[in-house]
Amino acid sequence: MLHRGSSAAVTYPGGMRNCLLATLPRADFDLLAPELQSVALDQDAVLSRADHQIESVFFPHSGAISLMIDMLDGQTVATAIVGHEGAVGIPSVLGPSPSGITAVVRAAGTASRIPASRFHAAFNRSPAIRHAVQIHVRTMLMKFQLGAACNALHPVKARMARWLLHFRDRIDHDVLALTQEALSQMLGVRRTTVTLLMRDLRASGAIKSDRRGQIEIDRSRLAAAACECHGAMRLELEKIFAMNAIQPIASVVPDEGRIP
Ligand SMILES: [Zn+2]
Prior knowledge:
- The protein has 260 residues and is α+β, with helices and mostly antiparallel strands.
- The protein has helices spanning 19-22, 26-32, 116-125, 127-153, 156-169, 180-187, 191-203, 219-225, 229-243; strands spanning 37-41, 46-48, 56-60, 64-70, 76-82, 102-107, 109-115, 175-176, 207-211, 214-217.
- The chain folds into two domains: 19-127 and 247-252, Jelly Rolls (Sandwich); 155-225, Winged helix-like DNA-binding domain superfamily/Winged helix DNA-binding domain (Arc Repressor Mutant, subunit A).
- The protein has nine helices and ten strands.
- Helix 5 (156-169) packs across helix 7 (191-203), helix 5 (156-169) runs antiparallel to helix 8 (219-225) and helix 6 (180-187) packs across helix 7.
- The model is unreliable at 1-11 and 249-260 (pLDDT under 50).
């Protein structure tokens, strides 16, 4: 469980693991609580769609959501992954505007959901909620900046290994429910390219098996195949959490994998 180390922090029942909610003192959490709904994040569910109004803010407790940019020519590419360290729909606090991204659940899990208008109202009333939003915005800017550099500088095999590790960080086992079609959309490459990359990663032992949309990985070998950006993003996330007195969640920044 994650908390600020303060006696005023909220104690959650089992399963409530979202970092941002966990930063909130009880009084601030109580501004949200009446409107928070526990929801399942089903595999491939779309939480927000590009060019549509953001209706809800989701605070994942488990699972992973990819943020996708849809290009005019029909191609897509992932810009970031969000798990229990963040939220989906936060830009709604800037006021009514269409979503810039499509948010797709890539690893099933659970979340707390609140109508965007109710979250906006609580945001206006609570410095602690605004602080949680600032933390989230800082982590997302870091992900976007490093992701842009990675896309420009690093080969696609290393990038695919990075994305797989991002997913692994947000679930508690080595079998990822990802189809090659999903990977091709996330990486912005053809499906045949993904097939060739999977073959290479299988040959090196980084992927143990890939059957029916279930990819079993060897985490340490996959880390060897990935570019520096997986470790760099995790380190930056850890720094942002540390600056805000947030204890890292084990599956986001595992002790055994923490960068010294
Ligand atoms: Zn990279």
